[in-house]
Automatic annotation (TrEMBL):
GO biological process: dolichol-linked oligosaccharide biosynthetic process; GPI anchor biosynthetic process; protein O-linked glycosylation via mannose
Protein name: Dolichol-phosphate mannosyltransferase subunit 1
Keyword Plastid: no
GO cellular component: endoplasmic reticulum membrane
Length: 178
């Protein structure tokens, strides 16, 4: 094992693991027989996502930490400022019409998800942003549900200097191309 490079349980450097997961996620969505409503995460979403989707026949339902009763718990001031700053910059440059671009709790209609995945080119945190920006570009409707995000108990955040630089590059690329 190389020193100075963090490795995961598959003995891949962490940056390769992230690329591997993004590739696997795209492959699963392309090859799988997805149900009519599909979540981009490998988790079960709370019932409020499904009821919001049915209520407004939204193409995308996104969890937001920044509206209503939404919020974050367990983050220090630095992490909150980074998150707010990233969302503020995204709002100013991209005008997405959604309040939480960096969140990842989302529900997509199958055909919407397939089209968005086909057109998205970003990786990492920018991927989540691009999905919403492309959804707006294709005139899909987006509903929002307040969520309370609780920081992880085990493990550590993947957010570091490299991710912030990657986010800024991706943000500027989206600004220039959408």
């Amino acid at each position: 094992m190389m020193t100075g490079v963090r490795h995961n349980r598959r003995n891949l450097p962490v940056y390769q693991e992230r690329r591997y997961r993004a590739h696997q996620q795209r492959r699963v969505f392309q090859e799988a027989e997805l149900p009519p409503l599909s979540a981009i995460l490998y988790t079960v979403l709370p019932p409020c996502f499904y009821s919001k989707q049915k209520e407004g026949d939204f193409d995308v339902v996104s969890g937001t930490r920044y509206l209503g009763d939404g919020g974050v718990y367990g983050w220090d001031l630095k992490r909150k400022l980074i998150s707010r700053g990233a969302n503020f910059l995204s709002q100013v440059l991209l005008r997405p019409g959604a309040s939480d671009l960096t969140g990842s709790f989302r529900l997509y209609k199958k055909e919407v998800l397939q089209k968005l995945v086909e057109h998205c080119v970003s990786k990492g945190y920018v991927f989540q942003m691009e999905m919403i920006v492309r959804a707006r570009q294709f005139k899909y409707t987006i509903g929002e549900v307040p969520i309370s995000f609780v920081d992880r108990v085990y493990g550590e955040s993947k957010l570091g200097g490299n991710e912030i630089v990657s986010f800024l590059k991706g943000l500027l690329t989206l600004f220039a191309t959408t």
